[in-house]
Specification:
The protein is about 45% helix and about 15% strand. By secondary structure, the chain is an alpha+beta fold. The chain folds into 2 domains: about 1-170, Ferritin, core subunit, four-helix bundle (Ferritin); about 185-265. A hairpin with a 2-residue loop joins strand 6 and strand 7 (about 220-225). Helix 3 packs antiparallel against helix 5 (about 115-140) and helix 4 (about 90-110) packs antiparallel against helix 6 (about 155-165). The mean pLDDT is about 95. This is Protein rds1. Pfam families: Ferritin_2.
Amino acid sequence: MFCSLIVRLLETQILNFALTLEHLENAFYTQGLQKYTQEDFIDAGLPTWARGRWNQIAQHETTHVSFLESVLGDDAVQACTYNFPDTDPMSFVSTSFMLETVGVSAYSGAARFLSNSDYITSSGAILAVEARQSAWINSAISKANPWNTAFDTPLGLNQVWTLASGVIVTCPSSNMPLPVKAFPALSFPADAKPGQTVQVSFNATTTSEQLYVAFIAGLGPTVVPLSSDHTVTIPSTLEGVVFPVITTVDGPVTDNVTIAGPTFLSFDFNSDA
């Protein structure tokens, strides 16, 4: 009996974690489509049909919110307040791609915490839509790769929360506490590319003499040393979306070895890779 209550509480927390992310996406599209008109989209060089597709995506996110609220009932968390980074239609596009892609990683990473078959099935159905939306943005709109590698990248709860917390200002005090924490932010130069040596930025203290950058992509990381001046050479083999994390070990990435990050990088590649 006690174990079943614990499982139920954990699943409620995980579903509220998903709802928190869906609230975020829902607010982003609602605010963005209010800010940018059809003329704004066309003036930015976007296709005439693009804004209509984002209207459909916005409707999907509203439906996801309503669905999770119906499942959670009185336990459902409310929307937070946000500060999104988009300032024009093109930054709306890039932010949309990031949110949809992180959403895919969030659902795939959180699946292991679910035991209810109905929750697993419905979460998988939402994940598939998020993946389609991410692929559409990067291929049909940005004219780049619709996928990354043969495997997408599951992220842990704290890794996802670190990315989401960058746009969350505050959440209602009445919301159920979530079993998550944010790591210190990590940033790369905006023009970082595979094969380049770049300087990264993060604000965290550690007693470890040697730090590493774990570039998480697919089902595992590519780990390289971080120099004392915070420079790192990005592996030339990376392509697609990558989530770098600063760690204390040259090995698997876990919360207890994470110093900062992840951040979101996208290395586009063409049909010839």
